[in-house]
């Protein structure tokens, strides 16, 4: 199963054109070492589209369970099932006007996408991810999809935080004092796929994304506690990132490197939140 291929041809991981397993460079897209020392076929056997979805799902689930375990007695049931205590979410990296401006926890715009405020909250977001994640990976490549997921989420929470700080409190349009959830990143995927549909003239994709977006907006105005600024900021962030990461171009090694840096930044934000947050709630350590 993990046997190294030493001779013959295979498909370049970036442009999917036929290359020799020992070619130093792909003659079609310029990727160096497209045969990946003979292991390109093995690595391609892992479904990267679903690896990305699985990674995010397990990470979010683990952090959600951790937020519940940190303060079992503080679990709430109103408005959603199994809502973690607010102090637990603060320690793990909730964002918003309070953590960022009152406590100086500016890095939480990177950590909040991995946290959730209740069981229904995380289930709905992971269902969105299950539908959108494979599409993003096919269109943009897994590396660029990860970059959009992380940075669009950060742009969404930055928008919500700034709105809460500097704009008046308007019903359904006010920023958030505390905010968490992967929906900012999900809306980033909406924005990225909308741009791709416009680039390629794919009317079916544009109509599908528009329908999903309308559903998301309606839910945001019907249900209390939805962070519409995070959704809007995530959508704009995803759209802009799609323009910068042109999905018409083949994947490059630097896309994978950028994805690694984005994930590393998210992990660093989570660790910084925990280490500094426990100073305020040492009994949660």
Characteristic terms for this protein:
single chain; 285 residues; mainly alpha; Rhomboid-like fold; 2 domains; two-stranded antiparallel sheet; globular
Q: Radius of gyration, rounded?
A: 20 Å
Please tell me the overall pLDDT: 86
Approximately how much helix is present in the residues? Answer: 55-70%
* Order of strands in the sheet with most strands: 1-2
Strand element count: 2
Measured between the Cα atoms of the first and last residue, the distance is: 43 Å
Shape: globular
- Kindly give the count of domains: 2
Largest beta sheet, briefly?
Answer: 2 strands, antiparallel
The number of helices is 11
CATH C-level name of the largest domain: Mainly Alpha
Order of helices and strands: EEHHHHHHHHHHH
Low-confidence stretches: none
CATH architecture of the largest domain: Up-down Bundle
User: Pairing-aware structural class of the strands and helices?
Assistant: mainly alpha
Do you know the CATH topology of the largest domain?
Rhomboid-like fold
Q: How much of the residues is beta strand, in percent?
A: under 5%
According to CATH, the homologous superfamily of the largest domain is Rhomboid-like
